[in-house]
Design goal:
- The protein is built from three helices and no strands.
- The protein is mainly alpha-helical and 68 residues long.
- The protein folds into two domains: 32 residues, no CATH class; 35 residues.
- The radius of gyration is 21 Å and the shape is elongated.
- This is Inner membrane protein.
- Keywords: Membrane, Transmembrane, Transmembrane helix.
Length: 68
Amino acid sequence: MKKVLLQNHPGSEKYSFNGWEIFNSNFERMIKENKAMLLCKWGFYLTCVVAVMFVFAAITSNGLNERG
């Protein structure tokens, strides 16, 4: 994988690795993890993101209603 990445990115042959290589290795390790654990982890992240969005929407709507 390293040779292909270094060939695809000209100028990066000076270094032993670049950012894409780190990303690809992490991505492969994530795929090799247990699928149920992966789904649970990403489901938890998405739930937290949606909850934070709802909280900010409620705060902004309350603030606008009080002022207006």
